[in-house]
Amino acid sequence: MPTDTTKIDDLPGSAPLFENLFLSVGAMKAGTTWLYSVLRHHPGIFFTPEKEIHYFYARYENPKVLNDRWRLNAAKLHTGFEPATADVATVARNFRWLASYLSGPVDDLWFRTLFQDRRRETWVADFSNLNALLSEAGWRRALGAAGRLKVLYTLRNPINQVWSHVRFHLIMTGNRQKLETWSAGELAAFALSKAIWPHTDYAAAIRRMRAALPAGTLQTGFHHSMKDAPLDFIRRIEAFLGLPPHDYPPALLERQVNVTPELPMPPGMVAAIAPAINRLVSELEDLGIGVPESWSVR
């Protein structure tokens, strides 16, 4: 007999957790927050109050993600509301969700319970950049969690992406001063470190996903397409999910979200990371991903 702590995917012959699961997996600083801000308005997609759950990465790669402290830090962002304008039913639903989010153990049943308020939406969605780091084996486990899985991976000019990620990481970890005090060489070394570069190594992520996922499961997109033709980009995602087009307010499509403070890349940093960037571009081309010429460093 299964016990209270038995995980669903450990049970023989168990059904998938979800009929339809949509995962947006980054890359980091490649427009996923903007994409979430738009698609959360589509009536065919259900999101939890937390945009990035990171479940599969926590389950199969790094259990420290989604430990008690991690979930408490995330939960504090969802506990504030304005009594004069808040809707009681919405606040009650959010606090009910938080109770599930903060409960344990963090297993398949926990993950499924986070979507218990889904009504008629076709897809449940998790937008987690960390899931892009899943191993091939991790992706095979994620595939088994859904009757139908769709994965979106967005790419950005790697020079802009890695520099934005470096700035974001140092600011969020309380090390903003290093943007001013580190040399170009030190910043380049950090950009190529294990903390940053795996999120920029699009080719490695695509190889892992392609090795584990059936044809038609993975779609790639470009950050510049979101900026140049946002509605066209959204229409491609809706078609990928088999959803009817939704009418989005133009202001929603055009606004910028989660913008990292601007700061010019220091002279010499581009040259230091150029070999890695050009190698990445070559690997993407070998994978059949046609990237803009501007991505290469001359």
Account of the protein in words:
- By secondary structure, the protein is α/β, with parallel strands linked by helices.
- The protein has one domain: P-loop containing nucleotide triphosphate hydrolases (Rossmann fold, 3-Layer(aba) Sandwich).
- The protein is 45% helix and 10% strand.
- The chain has 15 helices and five strands.
- The chain has helices at residues 32-39, 55-60, 68-75, 88-102, 108-113, 136-144, 158-172, 178-181, 184-191, 197-200, 202-212, 223-228, 230-241, 250-254, 269-286; strands at 18-24, 45-47, 123-127, 146-155, 218-222.
- Strands 2-3-1-4-5 form a five-stranded parallel β-sheet, sandwiched between helices.
- α6 (136-144) packs across α11 (202-212) and α9 runs parallel beside α15.
- The chain is globular and about 55 Å long.
- The relative contact order is 0.17.
